[in-house]
Write a structure and sequence with these properties.
Length: 138
């Protein structure tokens, strides 16, 4: 699989919440880093347990069912480097009544048709505001 096709498969599985499909293209040892220092979710999540359990599980619990909307704004891949970028717009209503409205960029590293590392960059002030997190000092 090409880097682009792996990211497309990731997007398809993620948008339909097909965990089994995602596991076919994500290394068991994947690292997923939400980049930043001013938000509690900004850290590195390791392996399937970290990504599917801690990160996605926590976000899934916070969102009102059926309110998550993600739109791809761009997908770019450098096949020779094994790196790709997925640009998304994401909105969701949280159980606290707040609306999360962010654009984000995921930087994927793909080796042997598996996602091995992702660095996710987004407006953490918007995340803090929607979730009611106190901003952590950098």
């Amino acid at each position: 699989m090409t880097v682009k096709s792996v990211i497309e498969a990731f997007w398809q599985g993620h948008s339909t919440q097909d965990i089994d499909a995602l596991k076919t293209i994500m290394s068991k040892d994947v690292t997923w880093t939400v980049v930043g220092k001013t938000c509690p979710i900004a850290k590195t999540y390791s392996g399937w347990d970290g990504f599917f359990g801690e990160l996605l599980g926590g976000l899934g619990d916070a969102f009102k069912p059926g309110t998550l909307n993600m739109v791809v704004k761009g997908l770019y891949a450098d096949e020779d480097a094994g790196v790709g970028f997925l640009h998304l717009a994401e909105t969701a209503t949280l159980h606290n009544g707040q609306i999360l409205d962010v654009e984000l960029v995921d930087v994927f590293t793909v080796r042997d048709s598996k996602i091995v590392d992702v660095r996710e960059i987004m407006d953490l002030a918007a995340v803090n505001g929607a979730f009611g997190f106190a901003e952590v000092s950098a």
